[in-house]
Design brief:
360 residues, mainly alpha, two-stranded antiparallel sheet, 70% helix, globular, zinc, Znf_MYND
């Protein structure tokens, strides 16, 4: 990232990427992005610009006049394809940053996704809702609850006037409304929305899908904060079980793939591409570590619960190529499993640790 102060040419209205105020600094790498000052340039770079800087050039650079209709149509199709790719990339990045607790950095990514969605789908489309939801959740994380309410109201209104809206989007809307009410310490209303989240996610993906597990996790947190530990524990157990089964399938596919002939972590393969995206990886890290910390510090915690979440984390870090953490959680899982009566379960943890130990 470098500074390139500029004087706006006469008749050219350059706007800041983040706030849309007059811009006086240009990105020296892509040369198609402008800022009102250094602060916004740095914020955008950390949030999303470093990742998309070169990708913006073909989207914002004027092209020569194309004589034939066929050439113009091909150019338009290319542009549309690139814009849709940018929507996916910026949204995934924004969601990943939210799971990592980087709420301030998630805002530029969400703003970019919203901009591209408007260009592709228009101002009133349901396709804008995921971007509003990321902005809403970022605002909740930053304690800007009034701003969060504005974003979520916009999302809610769009959903209400779109009867064909998918259950996936309805699920995410309920989750964000639940998070907003939890931040306002209105737990009954929060739980109502988390129940709506689980219902719509189950309709879309099934009750045992990782995309449904987030609703269980946030509902568990709401009960935990009300000191209703029995209910919270059962929900945390549900979340752990869903991730455990999902990660087990990914690990088995990794071990069975041809790429493993030269070692369990050798190379990439088709299964890996179909595994977890960046946002799901960040969600798994956040959720499973939170449950592990609670189990480890919980007086009288069942050894099965600690062993299972430890094993899940070992599998997760194995898939993420973090061998040291995979071994560390594998050993913790083995230790916790010593108090478990299910011998087959205990043996599976030991065998997986052996797989990790063989990785150089």
């Amino acid at each position: 990232m470098a500074l390139n102060p500029l004087a706006n040419p006469k008749g050219v209205d350059l706007k800041c990427e983040l706030c849309q105020k007059p811009a006086f600094i240009q990105c020296t790498q892509c040369r198609v992005t402008y800022y009102c000052g250094v602060e916004h340039q740095k914020a955008d770079w950390l949030g999303i610009h470093e990742k998309i800087c070169p990708l913006l050039v073909p989207l914002r650079t004027a092209v020569p006049f194309l004589a034939s209709e066929e050439e113009r149509q091909h150019r338009q199709e290319q542009l549309l394809h690139r814009q849709k790719q940018m929507i996916e990339l910026t949204r995934t990045t924004g969601q990943k940053l939210l799971f990592e607790g980087k709420h301030e950095q998630a805002v530029p990514a969400a703003m970019q996704s919203l901009r591209f969605a408007i260009q592709v789908y228009g101002l009133a489309s349901i396709q804008l809702v995921p971007s509003y939801l990321i902005l809403g959740e970022a605002s909740i994380g930053l304690g800007r609850l009034s701003q969060a309410e504005e974003y979520l109201s916009q999302a809610q209104w769009t959903v209400l006037k779109t009867p064909e809206c998918s259950n996936a989007i309805r699920s995410k809307l309920h989750r964000n409304l639940g998070l907003l009410n939890a931040a306002k310490v209105e737990y009954d209303e929060a739980l109502r929305h988390f129940a709506g989240d689980i219902y719509h996610a189950s309709e879309e993906f099934g009750t045992e899908d990782i995309r449904t597990s987030g609703g269980y996790f946030h509902m568990a947190n709401a009960f935990f904060r009300q000191n209703k530990m029995d209910t919270a524990d059962s929900l945390y157990e549900e979340v752990t079980g869903i991730w455990y089964e999902h990660l087990s399938r990914l690990v088995q596919a990794r071990l069975a793939s041809p790429a493993t002939r030269n070692g369990p972590l050798a190379g990439s393969n088709e299964e890996e591409e179909e595994g977890l995206d960046e946002a799901q990886e960040a969600e798994a890290i956040q959720v499973l570590n939170a449950i592990f910390d609670m189990r480890e510090n919980q007086a009288g915690s069942a050894p099965e619960s600690l062993a299972k979440v430890s094993h899940a984390l070992a599998m997760l870090y194995y898939l993420l190529h973090d061998v040291d953490k995979a071994k560390d959680f594998g050993r913790k899982g083995v230790s916790a499993s010593e108090g478990v009566q299910d011998e087959e379960f205990s043996r599976s943890i030991v065998e997986f640790l052996k797989v990790c130990e063989r990785v150089v």
